[in-house]
Amino acid sequence: MASQILNRFKQFDAYAKTLEDFRVKTASGAFITILGGTVMILLIISELHTYMSPNISEELFVDTSRGHKIRINFDIIVPRISCNYLVLDAMDSSGEQHLQIDHNIFKRRLDLDGNPIEEAKKRRNNDFNCSSK
C-alpha cells in the first residue's frame, strides 16, 4: 500500500525524467547534494532562530533638539495677599525644576475691586510689596 502511494508520488512530477542510461551517480555528486542540503537546513534554522529571538537595544540620551525656552504669558489676580508670598516655580518635561522664577514677571498692586493702583513694573531685589491696603 505504501509503495503504491510512493510510486504515484514519484509519477507526479512537472519535469520529464531522464532515462536511467543518461544518469551518472558519483560519490562526489552525492557528497555535494548532502552538503548543500545540510547547509540549507542550517541556514533555515539560523534564520528562524534570529527571527524568533529579537535583539532588544536600550539607549538613553538627552534630547537636545528642544528649544531652550518657551514664552509663557499669564495674567493672574490673587486678592488680599502680599506679593512677597507669591512665587512661580516650574518644571519642564525632563523633570528639571526652576524655583522662584522672577525674571520678566511684573506684579502690580490692585485695589479691593481689582483695579490697578499703579502700572506694572519690575522691582529690584524681589521687593514686591504690592498688597492692597
UniProtKB/TrEMBL annotation:
UniProt keyword annotations, A-Z: Membrane, Transmembrane, Transmembrane helix
A Pfam short name: ERGIC_N
Span of domain Endoplasmic reticulum vesicle transporter N-terminal: 9-98
InterPro entries: Erv, Erv_N
Membrane spanning residue stretches: 27-45
Keyword Lipid biosynthesis: no
Presence of the UniProt keyword Ion transport in the record: no
GO BP field: endoplasmic reticulum to Golgi vesicle-mediated transport; retrograde vesicle-mediated transport, Golgi to endoplasmic reticulum
GO CC list: COPII-coated ER to Golgi transport vesicle; endoplasmic reticulum membrane; Golgi membrane
Similarity field: Belongs to the ERGIC family.
Protein name: Endoplasmic reticulum vesicle transporter N-terminal domain-containing protein
The organism of origin for this protein: Pieris macdunnoughi
